[in-house]
Amino acid sequence: xxxxxxxxxxxxxxxxxxxxxxxxxxxxxxxxxxxxxxxxxxxxxxxxxxxxxxxxxxxxxxxxxxxxxxxxxxxxxxxxxxxxxxxxxxxxxxxxxxxxxxxxxxxxxxxxxxxxxxxxxxxxxxxxxxxxxxxxxxxxxxxxxxxxxxxxxxxxxxxxxxxxxxxxxxxxxxxxxxxxxxxxxxxxxxxxxxxxxxxxxxxxxxxxxxxxxxxx
Length: 216
Prior knowledge:
Helices cover about 25% and strands about 30% of the residues. By secondary structure, it is an alpha+beta fold. It folds into three domains: about 1-45; about 50-150, CATH 2.40.50; about 155-215, no CATH class. Strand 6 and strand 7 form a beta hairpin. It is elongated and about 65 Å long.
């Protein structure tokens, strides 16, 4: 009996390493297969492509006009841009959400217009604002904005100041010296009156003669 027991134990001890070696090989094989599947899956998904868009704003829509942080869409230079929820856009002297472009629209603009799009009925200039957008294009071809900068226009005036009206708060450039009727009239967009006090000729419908409080 002693011999038989020792033989059995001896055989058991010989088989145990082989058994665990086989289990380790199976586990390693399963792990390797899983890593290969994950690697293939990851490589099959393309990374988003950075997409810079700049041009004239043709149309703007907001998904939920009652939600300050709502997303929406903006068509710039014929390209449809998705404005994601919670994005805050940069203006020259302000930062606004997409919904706030609508709630702070100029007088005379309907609720579904901002006055910044070329196609807006309240946009008397018939030209849209200028947008510069840093976006990502995903696998589905959607262009999603990450940073938006809005200029009212690309107009620039340089020259000599030829007249200043201190009472009404404006000046003229490139006119006849001392003539209040010639040259380009320049008014500061200052709706809160921080730097100017404006009245009279050429006043817009906004506060302190400012044409657009969003750019103040």
